[in-house]
Amino acid sequence: MSDLLIRGRVLTFVAEPQGIDDTAAYRYFEDGAVLVRGGKVVDTGDHAVISKLAGADVEVADHRPNLVLPGLIDTHLHFPQTQAIASYGAQLLEWLNTYIFVEEQKFADAAHAGAVADRFFDELLSNGTTTAVAYCSVHPESVDAYFSAAEARGMRMVGGKVMMDRNAPDALRDTPQKGYDETKALIGKWHGRGRAHYAISPRFAITSTPEQMEMSQALVAENPTCYVQTHLSENHDEIAFATSLYPDAKDYTDIYARYGLLNERMLLGHCIHLSDREIGVLAETGSVGVFCPTSNLFLGSGLFDRDRFDKAGARWSVATDVGAGTSFSMLETMDEAYKVLHLRGQKLTPFNSFYRMTLGNARALGLEKHIGSLHAGADADIVVLDSSAKTAMEYRMRTAKSLLEELFILQTMGDDRCVAEVYVAGKAMKGKGAKRAAAASRLLETA
Q1: What would the pLDDT profile of 13-63 be if each residue is shown by its tens digit?
Q2: Which residues contact 419 (CB under 8 A, 6 or more apart)?
Q3: Which of 8, 161, 203, 374 is placed for a possible disulfide with 44 were both Cys, Cβ 3.0 to 4.6 Å?
């Protein structure tokens, strides 16, 4: 693979911004470049310096005047719900039973799972997302489709089979032993293969018996490098139902704590209605609360309280939560995150938004050595953003006088149309590159 010099206005974070004037938190190069070799970043800096390092014969991708950033990261979504976005008129539990459980039954069919996986990854890439953490369905076929499609595109992805043995349709229930056996086999097949990471995935306490939670505990103990993902405190009715099923638990969070599931690799979707005690437990265990603003607004679930997390020293990340989430776009997601926090009386600066979509979410996954920034040795997962892609944005940009303003315009008005190019491990994935990747995925699935 030949070297590639990606030129543009380069922005990458090195720390969490502590305010709009915290220039030490990021590196910005007005005429910048990223040198890529063998799918990795060799160096990032001013074009005049990096071009000399690259040499005269290097291939150049000139994206001026667009912004060049690390690929965006999504820490919670549901791959089988790709075709269930915009399902009308219900809160969480009714929505699951009316729409989602019906949709997920289709994934017993490997051909259907493969077709949806293709579309799912195309949507991620078209929105500039190069790494995501997703739930598959209860069917091993869905996990194979998910990781096969990711592998064909060379993407670093996290995912796993949902485990459910109660309070779901018969066609979506496994058993504690079956859930354990299938998950163990899938970990053996996919975890650590290429850029794949497995997530042990009991859906949530409502759909898992104590016996299945014990099996989840065993899987986590046996596979300490795997992620764990589940849902926590999204909806008041959910909380009441979950705690009624585990009456000995102190609260909802304590259900997962009792089974040894809370650790620094645990991703807990939503975490809206937590007590101070519960947030304290997340802080003590290093578990990550995942803020899903478009989903929380769509289902009427509630408003995430970032300041309580920060005050307690608890970790949090941001995610789309497709299909209750209403967009694959992390830009649109951060727009809603800004509004949710505004309603809480809390501020989210543009620099903090772009930090969260990149290095912040990478740190939540413990993958900051690999993704989330453009440091030397990082995976060359890169997104190029056009701040004038829409006519209204172009008109607004005529008055923008700073990087801060530009980032807020992108966050507030941006969507997939602003994604000019995406690189995965140094390979361009839009246009012809994306078509080649999709074709490769289909060949892999039929092999």
Answers
A1: 999 999 999 999 999 999 999 999 999 999 999 999 999 999 889 999 999
A2: 126, 127, 128, 383, 384, 385, 386, 430
A3: 374
> Cβ contacts of residue 439 below 8 Å, gap of 6+?
none
- With CA atoms as reference, report the closest residue to 41 among 53, 26, 24, 31: 53
For β-strands 427-428 and 288-291, DSSP reports them as: unpaired
Three-class DSSP category at 392: helix
pLDDT in tens, 209-246: 999 999 999 999 999 999 999 999 999 999 999 999 99
Compute the CA torsion angle 215, 221, 223, 226 (nearest 10 deg). Answer: 90
Q: Structure pTM?
A: 0.95
Tell how strand 196-202 and strand 227-232 pair up: parallel
Which amino acid, residue 392?
Answer: A
143: Cβ contacts below 8 Å, ≥ 6 apart: 136, 159, 160, 161, 186, 190
31 close to 46: Cβ distance less than 8 angstroms: yes
Q: Give the span between the Cα atoms of 203 and 135, in whole angstroms.
A: 8
Taking the mean position of all CA atoms in its chain, how far away is CA 377?
22
DSSP 8-state code for residue 220: H
Q: Which of 273, 272, 232, 235 is nearest to 254 (CA)?
A: 232
Query: How confident is the model over 102-108, as a mean pLDDT?
Result: 96
* Calpha distance 258→435 (Å, rounded): 47
Write phi, then psi, for 341 (nearest 5 degrees).
-70, -35
Hey, how many other C-beta atoms are within 10 angstroms of the C-beta on 253? Answer: 24
